[in-house]
Amino acid sequence: MSTPSLRGLGSTLLACLGLLVALAAWPREPSAPMAEVALAQLPREAAHTLATIKRGGPFPYRRDGTTFGNRERRLPLAQRGYYREYTVPTPGSQDRGARRIVAGRGGEYYYSDDHYHSFRRIRE
After folding, report:
1. Whole-angstrom Cα distance, residue 77 to residue 69?
2. Which is catalytic among the residues 48, 85, 117, 124?
3. What stretches of the chain adopt beta strand conformation (E)?
4. Residues 72-104: pLDDT tens digits?
5. In terms of C-beta density within 10 A (0-12 exposed, 13-18 middle, 19 or more buried), how is residue 89 classed?
6. Under CATH, which architecture does the 31-123 domain have?
7. Is 85 a catalytic residue?
8. What percentage of residues in the chain have a pLDDT greater than 90?
């Protein structure tokens, strides 16, 4: 019985690594229907942030209104620049906190209270 060469083993490992990288980058649709939440069920700061978004500002945080890339693909897939992110202040937090509203160009709004790990579509 012959032993596989190191070159052959290295090539196989590189091919497997390439496949894993390709699969990780493959676009995925969200696996389940998007959960919804009524605006009235969100913290009052979220309602205030949404009203500020709708009137076009001014926004209290420098990053408000920047492009949200949706790299984790937790929101419906759309072209780059479709989504914008906004901070929902967290009382007592020394920084921006984890709460966000992401606005889609089509007029839809999503709320995350865990820094983009999960989203719920806001029902007004």
Report:
1. 10
2. 85
3. 35-38, 66-67, 83-87, 100-104, 109-112, 120-123
4. 999 999 999 999 999 999 998 889 999 999 999
5. middle
6. Roll (3.10)
7. yes
8. 69
Q: What is the pLDDT of residue 110?
A: 98
Q: Both tokens of residue 17?
A: 């690594």
Distance CA 103, CA 7 (A): 51
Identify whether 117 is a catalytic site residue: no
Tens of pLDDT, residues 14-52? 555 555 544 444 444 545 688 999 999 999 999 999 999
**Whose CA is closest to 47, among 75, 86, 3?**
86
Question: Can you give the residue ranges of every domain in the chain?
Answer: 31-123
The pTM of the full predicted model, rounded to 2 decimals, is 0.74
One of 36, 48, 72, 115 is an active-site residue; which one? 115
| C-alpha 122, offset from chain centre | 15
Q: How far apart are CA 71 and CA 4, in angstroms?
A: 39
